[in-house]
Amino acid sequence: MNDPANLMQATLSRRSFLQSGFLTLGGLGLADLLRLRAEAASNSGSTPDTSVILIWLQGGPSHMETYDMKPEAPVEYRGEFNPIHTNVPGMDLCEYLPLHAKVADRFTLIRSISHGFANHAGGAGRFLSGRDPLRPLERTSQFPTIGPIVSRMRDHVNIGIPNYIGNQPNVYGGGSAYLGESALPFVVGSDPNAKNYRVPNITLDDKLKDRLDDRVTLLASFDNMRRDLDQNGSLQSIDKFNSRALDMLTSDKSRDAFDITQESEATRDKYGRHKWGQRALLARRLVEAGSSFVTMQMQNPGITGCAGNWDIHAVNGHLYDDLRGRLPVFDRAVSALIEDIYERGLDEKVMVIVSGEFGRTPRINPQKGTRSKVMQPGRDHWPGAMSVLVSGGGMQMGQVIGSTTANGAYAKDNKLDPNDLLSTVYRFLGIDQAHEFLDHSGRPMPILPSGKPIVELG
């Protein structure tokens, strides 16, 4: 047995902490998580040292104003913005994404993904779970989405960095369904750009720390967490896992990954001193420390004149005035993350995905704004075409995969399904998409019912 004083001084690396979990989430204790990881390693070998950052643009960004512009289309389709060249010949982007243009050789654009669900919850559920939603209007998916699946398959804590009112644990239309609440993300709320930013609940309560000298009581509290599930006496050696879990909870180093003040002022400035930039930086710190999956929601930019999310119908806002404010902030945060991933040598280990649940209608639909009370341009929901940015992952960058029709309405060449992207991600993470979970009725459900890795990504 280790002396309690040594337990308080013992520390683990940030990677071990993040891979093992922060605290009890939905009933799964730290010790159980460690034990499961050890059993998985002994039975099937180690998992790949790979991670994914999903930058989720809730509301559905306009592909026509970002990554798939149509300057030759009639004005009612092409809109007000102009394309600019990038450092990749033939890959033009919106003029409000000049920093993207400088790192285009470090990402690939997929322009030919589409699906059939035009409302937010249904579109997000379809895109993130790989299955048609049973009830498309429900806020929570009826099938497990990618973050909870990664959490289950790799025994990692799924981390969510929300940017929306309430710090809800899911994207709109996301969820863990029959995987249970323990697969939901650990939510990292608040604004990391704030001076008093801190992440709660990653250390023991002070009162519990004061009781560390009572080792019998402490270990008993850990042992009782899930002892009722031990049918076969498989927890005989759980004490060592309890000790490691205790080390994590009492170590100040466990908080390092969340402490972006450890970054240089120049790095923080590069990402942008705003919520989106600092949350992108936080996402990089988390995957660098070993987290398998981080969802960063880019909503509520906090810019005067901009809507809360990317759902820019004309009734919600003036499409072009909104994007003139929103896109420069988006441009800085995403391009800095991509550049940072490569400069730190993480491009083989980390895959970045930038997407929303669908695109926007190819034809502009002017309406009277709810607030402005005047006619203004906007685009509506459109799952027939969308653009997705992929960076890193040791994959083939600096290319455009697929295309859309001349007016941007539908996928034309190399038509792809969201499942093809999900299949690519699961392969990168070393997850068998044919693995089955039991749903609420006891029916075996594979992770993906269809989909193949995208060949062009390599």
From TrEMBL:
Pfam families for the chain: DUF1501 (PF07394)
SUPFAM superfamilies: Alkaline phosphatase-like (SSF53649)
Name of the protein: DUF1501 domain-containing protein
Protein's organism: Gimesia maris
Taxonomy, superkingdom: Bacteria
